[in-house]
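Problem: given the chain below (570 residues), write out its structure.
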Amino acid sequence: MVAPLQVDPTVLAEGINLMWVLVVSFLIFFMHAGFAMLEAGQVRSKNVANQLTKNLLTWSVGVTVFFLIGAGVSSLVGGSGFSPAFAAESANDWVSWLFGAVFAMTAATIVSGAVAGRAKLRAYVSYTFLLAAVIYPVVTGLTWAGEIIAINGVVFQDFAGGMIVHGMGGVAGLTAAWVLGPRMDRYNEDGSVNVIPGHSLTFAVLGTLILAFGWYGFNVGTAATVFAVEDGALVLGAFETVGRVAMTTTIAMACGAIGAGAVALLKTGKVDTLYVANGLLAGLVGITAIPDTTTWWGAFVVGGLAGAQLPIVFGFVEKRLKIDDVCAVFPVHGSAGILGTLLFPFVATSAALEGTSIAEAFAVQLLGVSVIALWTVVATAAVFGALKLAGQARVTPEHERDGLDVSEHGVDTYPEFGKPDVATDGGQRSSGAQTSSELRSDGGKEIRTDGGVEKERDIKMVMAIIRPDRLGEVKKQLAEAGAPSLTVTNVSGRGSQPAKKGQWRGEEYTVDLHQKVKLECVVADTPVDEVVEAIREGANTGEPGDGKIFVLPVDDALQVRTGNRGPDAV
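Solution.
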């Protein structure tokens, strides 16, 4: 008779719990991809690389600082003495550190969206260092590590960081944006608001969905113990309530999008795409503090209210407070996190309150929110205020005009309009498109196959303003006409094409300068009429705004490489 396999339940529970925490930590880390896309989509194209760099450095700088300093400060404030992560007694203790680090870096990266477009990179990195080392660890020390915020034994409730992570990050972002001041041209002299749209709704929505995916690691992952051991047997640990966490997270997410879209519809008559995306995130933030204790109907209430408040709070911050919160981090993370945390006693199951009155539970929640918000405002204002006094907080007006991609990083995120459809430099020429230099046999005259005399060859510049989406077709037509060489410039202007109305987060703005491309094609041997007709055929859609074509004389030309002048240079 073979003895049954003996398994130590403690070892099994520990192994599965460690694996679970690692997996959800990796999932939360992936949220940085979502933040990068969400923020990049909401800034101007000239600031995209700067925003991406901030997201990369948030993780890189912050996680190392949290390892060396932040984790120890958190344990110190919590009453366990300074115990940095590098002093761990066992290798597997670093799993808990990593789980804490991905939460800390989420709080840090939220701030970057509020100060986009004008903060110096060194200022943001300096703040990230201090947030990871002190500001955030003090918050976790008062709450998760030490449970110091309490009244009469009733402890402040925040399951997965609705206030501790997101609320804190949103408040920090609002404070930093206030200290820095608005972007140039954001407000007129009379205080009225100028809408500055971001460059890509596609990126913003993609980032939103990546964040929503990672959020399951945030909320469901906080149920960190799959198994526990009781009386030598395996039992469920925090997974006893994991189904509730998954359900409330999903419902609140959905209702946040619905709530924000509904309020935007009431305000403007249109369902604003960005508000729907931001509302989805606000619903997630709202439930993050309380997903393990909320009733099913409470998830609808919390998510719906978190989404509905978003357009209202954003409008208040923008128009009343005159704070330029570029990526709406306060209404998405700050006010939504505060709201969800305060709603705990009103939507909690009876078992979650355990005899505590609604008034007592609310008082503790209010105390926790107040302490975290006050500490965050004071610490953030002190850091950015000091940087501002030193002249290191904000880029120069010239750099802000040029864009932070060039001034801070020396790169252009969008150096080309698209991949060329036709080889326009050094590629094979089509038959019949030989240059004059290919037809010459001596140092002067062109060999003519018709025995005639060489005609005077004029140089002409054909300049065209066309729709950007017609560029590829125009290039093909020009190549077929034997004039593949051209210069392309991104321009904007107005003519016969009527102005359009646009919306960005529910705010209407007029678009009377339309995006175009300017083509310049200099020809000598190719008949100019054929070039003009090629451009017209490729650019024509039959709608106002197709553009104009101009033909200009060119007095002379010189080819840099050969020194040829006149038509031979062309």
